[in-house]
Write a structure and sequence with these properties.
Largest sheet: 4 strands, antiparallel
CATH class: Mainly Beta
Low-confidence stretches: 1-24
Strand content: over 45%
Number of strands: 8
Mean pLDDT: 86
């Protein structure tokens, strides 16, 4: 009986020490949701005869004074050269990419992206490009849904 109690105490000690906050890689991080759009944000299809591009505004976001920005999204494309970009325009009107998923494999496999803060406050844009290198008459599709943006300190 004594051995059973000793084993229970030993296991409990291991369990409690494994759950301490100091061992957590995200200890002390504060995430704040600053943008959320559930459901389909953009979805369109087409064939290989022309590149299709859709650009829209996500509105004004303040990404200053923070350490990191985290994006969660659900993207899909079956066209190999499709892309998804989130960007802003700097003071010279030049495009500065925050996120660039430049082909189908990244679009289909990416759901969480964490970056250093661009230290920017202003309008943020979303651009989806549907493009395929194969032209067989097949219809292709691109879709983005469930976008959330968090600031992290």
């Amino acid at each position: 009986m004594f051995k059973i109690i000793l084993n229970i105490v030993f296991l409990f000690t291991i369990f409690v020490s494994g759950c301490s906050k100091e061992n957590s890689p995200v200890s002390g991080r504060t995430e704040l949701l600053i943008y959320s759009r559930d459901g389909v944000i953009e979805s369109f299809g087409g064939d290989c005869s022309a590149v299709q591009i859709r650009t829209s505004s996500l509105g004004n976001l303040n990404l200053t004074g923070i350490q990191k920005v985290k994006f969660t999204l659900n993207g899909f494309s079956d066209a190999d050269l499709s892309s998804i970009m989130i960007y802003y325009l700097n003071n010279n009107g030049e495009q500065v990419n925050i996120i660039d998923l430049p082909h189908r494999d990244q679009i289909n496999s990416t759901s969480i992206i964490e970056i250093d803060s661009p230290d920017y406050s202003g309008e943020i844009y979303l651009r989806l490009t549907l493009k395929s290198s194969v032209c067989t008459g097949q219809l292709f599709h691109i879709e983005l849904r469930d976008l959330k943006i968090y600031t992290i300190n």
